[in-house]
Specification:
Elements: E1 8-12, E2 21-25, E3 30-36, H1 40-44, E4 53-61, E5 64-72, H2 75-85, E6 89-97, H3 104-121, E7 125-126, H4 139-158, E8 168-169, E9 187-192, E10 197-204, E11 207-210, E12 215-217, H5 229-239, E13 243-246, E14 249-252, E15 255-258, H6 261-269, H7 275-278, E16 280-281, H8 288-295
Parallel strand pairs: 5-7
Antiparallel strand pairs: 1-2, 2-3, 3-6, 4-5, 4-6, 8-15, 9-10, 9-16, 10-11, 11-15, 12-14, 13-14
Helix pairs in contact: 3-4
């Protein structure tokens, strides 16, 4: 499948990468506004807060990531209510259109689909009790909303909201299936004999894809200081069935794409790890770091 290039425009309202921002895509009617709770007053003063739209609340409860998805005809009023009633969320994401041309049926459809997608992926716990029913839309309007969703699912990961991003991949049939891979798709292995960890991964299309059957540690072994994003991800993969506990190990049930070799190594080892050194080429045992350097062209310096 050929992916079309798109241009995303991010505007950091106060000049801070972790502050309020807007996101738009050329030739897309949608508009996304991310508001940290600490800037809720300023965010609700923006015109988008008076629009009809869908919203996400993101935060943690009992040290576990949590999200809520809702829809409303006036985003500002709904968020004011949630500010009084829900104390766990830290960030709100407002999804509207630049011309405020979404109506109630549109946003109810979008809310239902987003909850459905999030429950299907199970990358994060939802406070929503169930999947709300879809509104009645014409066939043409449903097609428009699905197109809207396709672009939205590209925008949200760009602003660090990846709860709708499915990183599982169709499982390969085994070592023999690698014969169909392109030559540039390198295969790497990682072993930690002390803990019985054995991983196999393919670098494909810029993704580090750990293959089904790879054995990770069943519990996070890192200290309290290492309980960061990777610890949370390890727990999420166990919860959503990507990893299944079998004795002392957790076995990957499907291929899974990581953003880096260190992310993959951390999940397998159950602690922070330097994946650039832990992963080695299957053919000749070079570390990923060495293999990477070997791929870089020699620079011809002017004398």
């Amino acid at each position: 499948m050929i992916t079309k290039a798109r241009s995303l425009q991010l505007f950091f309202v106060d000049g801070r990468p972790d502050g309020m921002l807007t996101a738009e895509v050329f030739n897309w009617t949608g508009h996304v506004l991310r508001i940290p709770r600490t800037q809720l007053r300023e965010g609700l003063a923006r015109k988008e807060a008076s629009y009809t739209g869908v919203y996400l609340l993101l935060g943690e409860k009992e040290s576990q990531p949590l999200a809520y998805i809702g829809e409303t005809e006036e985003l500002g009023a709904r968020l004011r209510g949630h500010a009084k009633q829900k104390d766990w969320w830290e960030t709100a994401v407002l999804i509207t259109t630049a011309a405020n041309n979404l109506h109630k049926a549109h946003v109810k459809y979008l809310e239902s689909r987003l909850v459905e997608i999030a429950y299907g992926i199970r990358a994060i716990e939802l406070e929503n009790g169930n999947i709300p029913p879809k509104s009645s839309l014409s066939e043409a309007d449903q097609a428009n909303m699905e197109s809207f969703l396709d672009t939205l699912q590209m925008v949200l990961p760009a602003i660090r909201v990846d709860m709708f991003m499915d990183k599982s991949r169709p499982s390969s049939a085994g070592p023999e299936s690698l014969s169909v891979l392109q030559p540039e798709n390198m295969v790497f292995v990682m072993k930690t004999p002390k803990h019985g960890v054995e991983g196999r991964a393919v670098l494909q299309g810029g993704e580090w894809i750990v293959q089904a059957g790879s054995k990770a540690r069943a519990v996070w072994a890192g200290n309290e200081q290492s309980k960061t994003h990777y610890h949370t991800l390890h727990a999420e993969l166990l919860a959503n069935g990507t990893l299944r506990v079998e004795g002392k190990h957790a076995v990957f049930q499907t291929d899974y794409a990581f953003s880096s070799p260190s992310a993959a190594a951390a999940i397998l080892n159950g602690r922070s790890s330097n994946g650039r050194l832990d992963w080695k080429t299957e053919t000749d045992g070079r570390t990923y770091a060495k293999w990477e350097v070997d791929q870089l062209p020699e620079l011809e310096l002017d004398v």
